[in-house]
Automatic annotation (TrEMBL):
Record-linked PROSITE patterns: FIMBRIAL_USHER (PS01151)
Domain of life (superkingdom): Bacteria
Protein name: 3-oxoadipate enol-lactonase
GO MF entry, a single one: 3-oxoadipate enol-lactonase activity
Ranges annotated as spanning the membrane: none
Domain AB hydrolase-1 residue range list: 13-234
GO biological process, one term: beta-ketoadipate pathway
A Pfam family it matches: Abhydrolase_1
Amino acid sequence: MKVHYETAGDGDVVVLSNSIGSNLRMWEPQVKPLTDNGFRVVRYDTRGHGQSPVPPGPYSIADLGRDVVELLDTLGVESAHFVGLSLGGMTGAWLGQHAASRIRSLALTFTSVKPGNVDMWTGRAKQVRAEGMATIAEGSIGRWFTPDWISANPELAEELRQMTATTPAEGYASCCEAIAGLDLTAGLGTITAPTLVISGADDAALPPSHGQVIADGIPGAKFAVIDHAAHLGSYQQAGKFTELLLEHLKGAR
């Protein structure tokens, strides 16, 4: 399935994959630093999100991974660095296991390979199909950022809340179903791409213990925990996140 994407810059390709309930705009803080350092940035909207198609669900993580392979084919890119946050990181873990020849390096951030909470995810899917995205959007901001960041950045927090509120309900619900019951733990040892794992010290949704499992399972993976960062730490602590990411990408060139 052809997903919506945007590109910027020239050089080695870095694909950026969004969290559930967001779109490619969540990567705004990273685009200029990456292009300034000689990378070609490819941001895309996960299926069911942003301007990408919204096929009826449920979706699987394999569906999301194959969308990335198709995107690389569309762009004529043999292999790329892949950076995913939350659901995007789960997609990256699948790619590392099932499309290794297309992945030059992985950054799996604020994510998990076994999220758990199956009933919560299936319940959330039912909720948004029945009631829409407004309630979910309020809760997302509370998970994405710490209360002090929201207080200090009310306009930006509202802009990001709207990003979730305008996500298609069917797309969000179908991605909830991709997360429910997901377990990619067994294949971690087969991932050969140089991997950076990042977690947020204040991430209540997927705390650092989830990142530790990934880093322990992938041979040679590096693990970093960012202080004062909740679930959307790429935004809340954009400077530190981007610094870690650039160090990783340059080392994997």
